[in-house]
Each structure stands twice: as C-alpha cells, then as structure tokens.
Amino acid sequence: MTGLALALVVLAALDGMLSGFRSAAGRDGRIRTTRRDGIAQARGLLVVAVLLLPAAALGAAGLAGERHDAWRRAAEALVASYLPFGLLVLLALLAYATAGWERRFLANAAILGPGTFLRPAVAVLGGAWAIARADDPQVSLGVVAAVAAVLAVEPVCDRLWYDRLTPPPGAVGTVS
C-alpha cells in the first residue's frame, strides 16, 4: 500500500504543479518565463496539498481501521487510470522543456492542449472506477473529495493569483 500511496502523492503533486503552471501560462511558446513558471508551479503544489487534506485524513483513518482493503483497491484503480495519462504528459513536458520553440509549440498543440481538455474526464472516470472497485461509502467519499480537490486547483489558482488582470480601457476581453 505504501507504494500505491506514494504514487498517488507524486501524481497529485505533479498535477497540482501543472495546474498552477496552466493557470499562469501564456499562449506563445517563444516566450521563456522560467521564474514565473516556477512560482506558478509552487503555488499549484501548495493549493493541491491544502485541498487534498480532507481526502488524506479520510484515507489515513480508513487505513488504520478495517477499510484497508477497500482503500487499497481504490488506490490501485486510481494509479492504473492516472499513471498512463501522467506519463504521456511528462513526455510532452520533456519535449516542451528541451526542444526549440517550434517543437514546444507542437508538444503543446498535440498533447498538452488536448490533455488539458481530457483531464477532467480522466479524473472523474478514474475516480468512478476507484469507487466501484472499493465498494465502501467512506472510501467513496474520500475519492470524491480527492477528485474534486485536484480539479479545483487551477480555478483556485486563477482566483487567488491570475484573474486580477483587467483589460485596459476600450479593450475587448481579458488580458492573458
């Protein structure tokens, strides 16, 4: 169970960091914003850690009791559903981090953009599979809390740090 828990913590931390990055990211692959990106990733990591506290508390309480097997089944389903998606995103990020701007743009357009679109569905479907596998109300509550937490990171980061940009007088839309 320790390996599964560690895998889930790493996946949640990575997802939180990337949600913070997406919240702050610009739309032009030629612009390097390394310092700002690092700050955004740290903010996403902080937000996901705080938002996952209720789910982690439920999990810790369940692991200490007779629900250990139900939590293990849920964790196995979550890791099995989120790990392939996470590895694909990591490969795209490797290309994004190491390639020239043309390939960064391609990685963003071909994988990261569609991945951002599919992420909520992957999160919800993985959570549904975990709930079905666990067949336990407390585990179901913990899984729902965890899925809601990871899906809330980007909107929370937007609200706390990045939605404050207002357009200049006469402009149409928001500044990004």
Radius of gyration: 18 Å
Mean pLDDT: 82
Q: Could you state the order of secondary-structure elements as H and E? A: HHHHHH
Apparent shape: globular
Estimate the strand proportion: under 5%
Low-confidence stretches: none
The helical percent reads over 70%
Number of strands: 0
**Can you summarize the main beta sheet?**
none
Characterise the protein shown here.
With 176 residues, the chain is mostly helical. The chain contains 6 helices and no strands. Helix 2 packs antiparallel against helix 6, helix 4 packs antiparallel against helix 5 and helix 5 (101-134) runs antiparallel to helix 6 (137-162). The chain is globular. The relative contact order is 0.16. Keywords: Membrane, Transmembrane, Transmembrane helix. The chain crosses the membrane at residues 42-65, 77-99, 105-132.
List the helices and strands and how they pair.
Elements: H1 2-24, H2 34-51, H3 53-64, H4 68-98, H5 101-134, H6 137-162
Helix pairs in contact: 1-2, 1-4, 1-6, 2-6, 3-6, 4-5, 5-6
List keywords for this structure.
single chain, 176 residues, mainly alpha, 6 helices, 82% helix, globular
Short note summarizing the structure:
With 176 residues, the protein is an all-alpha fold.
